[in-house]
Specification:
The complex is a heterodimer of chains A (about 575) and B (about 200). With about 575 residues, chain A is mostly helical. Chain A has helices spanning about 1-10, 25-55, 65-100, 105-125, 145-175, 185-215, 220-235, 235-255, 265-275, 295-300, 300-330, 335-340, 345-370, 385-410, 420-445, 470-500, 520-525, 535-540, 545-570; strands spanning about 10-15, 20, 530, 575. Chain B has one domain (about 55-195): Cupredoxins -  blue copper proteins (Immunoglobulin-like), CATH 2.60.40. Chain B contains 3 helices and 13 strands; from the N terminus they run βαβαβββββββββββα. The chains are: A mainly alpha (about 575), B alpha+beta (about 200). β4 (about 575) of chain A pairs antiparallel with β11 of chain B, so a sheet runs across the interface.
């Protein structure tokens, strides 16, 4: 009896979703989300400095601070912001969604402390100018040994959290906290956790030698470093993809009652990520002198593009699930009534849809194209590269994380979302900004404008070169798009911080439809299960709207891809 | 009665069920497209003119520097902006050394002729970016990347560094002058002038 009472004491029951929530899980989600947003703030301040420097007419920062902030921007956005948020996602998809306790709360808090210590060390090193080596820290460029140590501590902490997530699955199964198979969202998070383990082991395999090298103990081959580093650097983006797709499914359910059209298809696609995505390292080495063509062709295509196939499958099943859900709720007319009448003023839904479109149309197409062995000759180290990954990891992943935060604030922090009117336009401002940013950057990159470059006017260089005037326009548009996106991030941060620390408390048992500060999916949770005569009819009729959308996507993909081959065919013969 | 649920719901029973017609078609179409994407790369190795394979070998930075010095001694025709101007004969091995923050030396080539361009670095990573054609290769210390190149258009080209290499990264520009076909008069002069 007392044991049962002790167990009962650490849980609360969510009145909206009916989920049983462990206090430790809840608090760990809170601290990880808060630190995530703090590092996001550091990253976005750096971003503003960077875009205002690359806009040649403004050229804000001096050269040393440009590269210092570029280092800080990469680390804070791509490592700290994203991974802290993903730790929160793991605690949500594991303990919360399965109604299970955190198996080892002390270890969980210890791992958080380790990550925090690593983060602080890295920040101090970067901002004191002892690690001006950019995100990639390619040797022989050398940082202070403490920098590598900070990264290692952070990565070990993150690795422990993935292990705790795995342990949660075991405990939940043994204690029968759920029946049947784990929900699709948890399954997707599991694939993210598996990829995280692969990624972080690559991280250990390269940062531990890098630490030893920085202390003068061993030598380090620059090409081997590049190979292993990208086993961490690109695979970490695949953690993001798996986490983001899981969030798409989660938000689909919460916002509009989206269904899983077919569990087998969606889960198989997630498994493809695990099987093939770790080969992504090769993308970065296509025009390197270290590897031969057979290695490059096989690995860059992730074993015949099977991971690309997985993303194309999710690109169908996510909108198809949304379409089916909305059709089941009565929006059955024509091809697109479901889309027209969707809750576009809900930042959770708007963020989900924009994330899906930006990730697929811009990020996916540009990435697969320039990740082709020969086309990479036109793209390597040009602005096409950041143009691509700002569409995937910023327009896709970060936007989906922000969108789900509008649901986490009421569900986990039990607060109203502050600055509600601004929050509702925030995904649009962010989505449009980052789209302008990514497309303009990509066009500048097509002219060969280098990435990571302080001054492309070459004013002091021995041999002068002037890019065509169109490049100036593209870089100005990049800055304007970037500033729009940065403004939207600042709105998001303000809304989240005010909500969490100064916001109005929310009684989840007394929500009324249409109330300000609470997304519509929570004031009236859409059905999560459909059982009626019409289900078979709607399901059998398929998803004509989604079919049109994916057909347009494929057409754009084919056109962009072959345009690039055409562009390649006119340059010097090289072999 | 058929049941559908969201991704938040733990499915009960067997969920390994046949997919609908539209999903099957999309998965098939996507798979075929992925195979086309894959096939394009080996196909371009056979039919296409631009491949990053090259001749790849390890090289000690000091050894590479000696080759560059010998190359300059053999074919130097002058100097420009503080670096030697070198005009190698068609078909020869051409050396371009990257270092903080210089491309060394400047090259004079002939349109339509083939050369083997050897790229390496003697300090950190650098990036070879040819303008205005936008051709890019990674330059890694300790590795010799030998690329067979055939300039197909005369012109005054620039080489820009596009891998971050320290505080003077933006100062690192070089030059490749491609003479029109048939104007090879400089080559004998160059050879005669320095041997």
């Amino acid at each position: 009896m007392s044991a049962a009472a002790a167990v009962a004491a650490v849980f609360r029951r969510c009145p909206v979703t009916g989920l049983k929530i462990d206090r430790h899980a809840e608090n760990l989600i809170k601290v990880n989300a808060v630190i995530s947003i703090v590092t996001l703030l550091v990253g976005v301040i750096a971003a503003i400095g960077l875009v205002l420097t690359r806009w040649q007419a403004v050229h804000l920062l001096p050269v040393d601070w440009f590269y210092r902030l570029l280092t800080a921007h990469g680390l804070n956005m791509l490592i700290f912001f994203i991974l802290y948020f993903e730790m929160a996602v793991l605690y949500f998809a594991g303990p919360v969604m399965l109604g299970c306790r955190v198996p080892t709360p002390r270890l969980a808090w210890g791992s958080f402390a380790l990550m925090l210590a690593g983060t602080l060390i890295v920040e101090v090193m970067v901002f004191s100018g002892k690690a001006d080596v950019l995100f990639t820290s390619y040797p022989p460029l050398k940082a202070d040994p403490w920098y590598y140590l900070g990264i290692i501590l952070f990565a070990v902490g993150a690795l422990i959290v993935t292990a705790i997530f795995m342990a949660t699955l075991v405990v939940a199964k043994r204690e029968h906290t759920y029946e049947g198979s784990v929900p699709l969202v948890t399954f997707g998070a599991l694939t993210a956790a598996i990829i995280a383990i692969i990624t972080l082991l690559h991280g250990a395999a390269i940062y531990i030698p890098a630490l030893a090298w920085s202390l003068g103990i061993i030598t380090l081959d620059p090409e081997v470093y590049r190979l292993l580093f990208w086993g961490l650097g690109h695979s970490s983006q695949q953690i993001n993809v798996a986490a983001q797709v899981s969030i798409w499914y989660l938000l689909g359910g919460l916002t509009v009652g989206a269904v899983v059209v077919n569990e087998k298809i969606s889960r198989t696609a997630f498994v493809l990520y695990v099987g093939f995505i770790s080969m992504a390292s090769a993308h970065h080495l296509l025009v390197d002198p270290g590897m031969g063509p057979a290695w490059k062709v096989w690995n860059t295509s992730y074993a015949m593009y099977l991971a690309v196939l997985a993303s194309m499958v999710h690109g169908f099943t996510v909108p198809a699930g949304i379409e089916t859900g909305l059709r089941l709720r009565g929006f059955v007319n024509g091809t697109f009534e479901w889309l027209r009448k969707a809750p576009w003023s809900d930042p959770g839904f708007a963020g989900l849809m924009l994330s899906l479109v930006i990730f697929g149309f811009i990020g996916g197409i540009t990435g697969v194209t320039m990740g082709t062995e020969q086309i990479n000759i036109l793209a390597h180290n040009t602005l096409r590269v950041p143009g691509h990954f700002h569409a995937t990891v910023v327009g896709g992943t970060a936007l989906s994380f922000m969108a789900v935060t509008y649901y986490l604030i009421p569900l986990i922090f039990r607060k109203k979302v502050a600055l509600w009117k601004l929050a509702r336009i925030q995904p649009y401002l962010f989505g449009i900004g980052i789209t302008i940013f990514s497309i303009s950057m990509t066009f500048a990159g097509i002219f060969g404008v280098p990435r990571r470059h302080w001054d492309i006017s070459f004013a002091q260089a021995p041999f002068k070169y002037e890019f065509p005037p169109a490049v100036d326009l593209m870089l100005a548009l990049t800055a304007i798009g970037g500033l729009m996106a940065a403004a939207a991030v600042l709105i998001f941060i303000a809304s989240a911080v005010i909500s969490v620390f100064f916001g109005e408390s929310l009684d989840l048992a007394a929500l009324t439809p249409g109330m300000a500060g609470v997304p519509q999916g929570l004031t009236k949770l859409p059905p999560q299960q459909y059982e009626s005569e019409t289900v078979a009819k709607v399901h059998g009729a398929g998803t004509p709207g989604t079919v049109v959308l994916v057909a347009v996507f494929l057409l754009v993909f084919v056109m962009y891809y072959y345009t690039n081959w055409k562009m390649l065919s006119v340059v010097w013969k090289i072999g | 009665m058929e049941e559908l649920h969201s991704a938040l719901v733990a499915p009960r029973g067997i969920w390994w069920k046949a997919a609908g017609r539209q999903e099957r078609i999309w998965v098939t179409v996507s798979f075929v497209w992925c195979m086309i994407l894959f096939a394009m790369m080996p196909l371009w190795h056979i039919k296409g003119g631009q491949n990053p394979s090259g001749i790849r070998a390890r090289v000690e930075p000091e050894a590479f520097r000696r080759r560059v010095d010998q190359f300059i001694a053999d074919y130097k025709i002058g100097s420009e902006a503080g670096v030697p101007l070198v005009a190698p004969p068609p078909g020869s091995d051409v050396y371009l050394l990257a270092r903080m923050w210089q491309w060394y030396p400047a090259l004079v080539l002939e349109e339509g002729k083939t050369y083997v361009l050897h790229l390496s670095s003697i300090d950190v990573n650098h990036g070879f970016n040819l303008q205005p054609f936008n051709v890019n290769f990674q330059v890694v210390p300790g590795y010799d990347y030998g690329l067979r190149i055939t300039p197909n258009q005369a012109g005054d080209y620039r080489v820009i560094c596009n891998e971050y290499c320290g505080i003077g990264h933006h100062l690192m520009t070089g030059k490749i002058l491609v003479k029109p076909a048939g104007s090879a008069a400089v080559a004998p002069v160059a050879q005669g002038g320095t041997r």
